[in-house]
């Protein structure tokens, strides 16, 4: 209708793959935020902002984990813990 295209739906496996990729990215961001928090708390930066950013990354990570648990998604999450810059 009016030139709008019908959206294609993801199949279950594609969605689960996107979810596991998102979990890996969120885990990496959360770990990076924790390391940054420790380093930045020693500087003159605003402590509340630093703690809020770390808490935000933590909540994103746990939200995705809960979604995966509800969908009974299993994946090899050990790859998410690799940190190339360390």
Automatic annotation (TrEMBL):
<dbReference type="InterPro" id="IPR019644">
    <property type="entry name" value="DUF2508"/>
</dbReference>
<protein>
    <recommendedName>
        <fullName>DUF2508 domain-containing protein</fullName>
    </recommendedName>
</protein>
<dbReference type="Pfam" id="PF10704">
    <property type="entry name" value="DUF2508"/>
</dbReference>
């Amino acid at each position: 209708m009016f030139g709008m295209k019908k959206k294609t739906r993801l199949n279950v496996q594609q969605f689960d793959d996107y979810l596991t990729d998102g979990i890996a990215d969120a885990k990496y961001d959360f770990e990076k935020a924790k390391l940054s928090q420790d380093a930045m708390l020693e500087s003159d930066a605003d402590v509340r902002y630093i703690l809020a950013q770390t808490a935000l990354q933590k909540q994103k990570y746990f939200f995705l984990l809960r979604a995966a648990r509800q969908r009974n998604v299993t994946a090899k999450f050990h790859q998410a813990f690799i940190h190339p810059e360390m």
